[in-house]
Amino acid sequence: MHNRPNIIVIMTDQQRADLRRACGYELDTMPFLDEWGKGGVDFARAYTPNPTCMPARVSMFTGRYSQSHRVRTNHNAADALYTEDLLDVLKKAGYVTALFGKNHSHRRPEDFDVARLFGHLGDEGETNDTPQEREFADFLKRTDHMEVHHPSPGGVSVQHPYRSVSDALEFMDGRDGKEPFFAWISFAEPHNPYQVPEPYFDLFAPESLPPLKGGAEVLAKKGERFVWLRRTWEEILGENREERILRARSNYLGMLRLIDDQVKRLVEGVRERGLEENTVFLYLSDHGDFAGEYGLIRKGCDLPDVLCHIPMIWRGPGIRKKGRMAEGYVSIVDILPTLCDMLQLPVPFGCQGKSILPLLQDDPSGQDGSGVLREYDRAFAESGYGGLYWKETDGLDLLTEGASSNGKNFDCLNTWTQCGQVRALWKDGYHIQLDMMGNGYLYRTDEDPAELHNLWEDPAQEKKRSELLCALVSEMMKQTDVIPVPHYRYRVKVHPKGFWYADFAAKDPGVRNMKPIGKDHLEEKT
Fold first, then answer.
1. Which of 40, 138, 208, 423 yields a CA-CA distance of 20 to 30 A from 524?
2. Containing H/E element for 155?
3. Residue 64 above 60 pLDDT?
4. How far apart are CA 296 and CA 216, in angstroms?
5. Facing residues of 8 across strands?
6. Interval 383-423: pLDDT, tens
């Protein structure tokens, strides 16, 4: 029998952090998750390094930011650059690896020992054996990624979260227990198409939804790219756009409850199989969703808090029962080094995240008490694939550009929402954002969570803006890629846990003192 814990990562796609009662939301969308999180650490300040599916998922596996792993859009999987990733580390440690659900990473399904795929539209690797499953797959294709105004056919059992949990439990039943397992249960929901079956349809009816924090009237304050995005949605959604956005919000919240029930089913299934006491759970999302905020849905440009702020809950052996935790900013890039720290495995060279194990354990000050808490005083995110900003005056056409196939659908991650370079930092309850043209935004997120009041030009915030700008620039320099290392003589010194402020001696054998790169020493994976 093995003595290492099993690892289950439950990832949703496009789930905003604040739409749960435990986070202050008016509606009780995920009651099981709220209660379950009390038995672990439910981070109030968790962030994605890039609010885009593939870049965020590659960051989870590699512990690297998108500027470094080079998967800066949903179309750059072939460009992934790293030494070793989470799958490599766990396979070397003897783990059986499995994927159930949506992949959308640099890894191929065949890289896992077991893989059963579910995507957004029913034709992305699914095995639809029954008439009900085939009917549901056909229904998903017909949605064209848009919201649905009636309950989805087939009930709960054909929904992909249900089937992913069933496949995961079947996988656990088929094991002999001699090796630990890693299961990535990756729900493709609540990402669009915004659909949901009974009894979840109208569970949060459109007419009963709480008011938004900010509507389309605030978009001019957010910048011209936000205004352009809204105009495009107005064109796509037509005259009844507000009714359609309400329906999308309603279905989105109903899907959160469906997911909540499936997480409960998974956790209870693990418990019934006697595996819970030796299983580390991590629940998170890759990024957020506007969910109607600013008159927008899905994703888009820049790095607003609603797209970057994500849920993240850790629970399992050795993890304290803290519940909702406001101390410490954490990120998706921290997952790989944290799991390495838990398993006492070396962190792959080139990893840019840090271990958050001190926050998960009973001693958050760290074993050496030497500035570990300072490691968690900020979160950093980036977006953009480079170049100038495309503008409406450039005459980009949605059809020829590929952002729409028929003028009735819309890919909100496209040439003009993803162009340029944008960087952001969250620290001390503030959010600062800067782009390559020097355009700046400053929000006090603790008091203004909807980010309606840009304090960039506020004289009273001049000192704080300067402080945060220095923090942003220093973070950008810290996350400058160390790969490739110098080819001759120079050695790269990195902390074994990814820390920057904690004291350690250079002669400590745990310090990574890299030798010059060579074919027999270190090869980047591309």
1. 423
2. none
3. yes
4. 8
5. 183, 281
6. 999 999 999 899 888 998 899 999 899 999 999 999 999 99
Strands (E), 55-198: 96-101, 114-117, 181-190
Task: Work out the burial of residue 373: count CB atoms within 10 Å of its CB; fewer than 13 is exposed, 13-18 middle, 19 or more buried.
Answer: middle
pTM score, whole prediction: 0.95
How many Å apart are CA 344 and CA 335, to the nearest integer? 14
Residues ≥6 apart with Cβ < 8 Å to 361: 318, 319, 320
CA dist., res. 182 & res. 100, Å (int): 11
CB atoms within 10 A of CB 450: 17
- How far is the C-alpha of 218 from the C-alpha of 102, rounded, in Å? 34
- Smallest CA-to-CA distance from 262 within 8, 52, 53 is with 8
Model confidence at 517: pLDDT above 60: no
**153 is written with which tokens?**
């056919």
Q: 181-190, 359-368, 497-506: which range is least confident on average?
A: 359-368
**Partner residues linked to 82 by β-bridges:** 525
Q: Which two tokens stand for residue 141?
A: 């294709």
The pLDDT of residue 368 is: 45
- E strands, 84-161, in order: 96-101, 114-117
| Cβ atoms of 336 and 85 closer than 8 Å | yes
Among the listed ranges 62-66, 315-319, 484-488, which one has the minimum average pLDDT value? Answer: 484-488
Sign of CA dihedral 64, 70, 71, 72: positive
Give the SS3 label for residue 207: helix
- Residue 185 main-chain phi, psi, to 5 deg: -100, 100
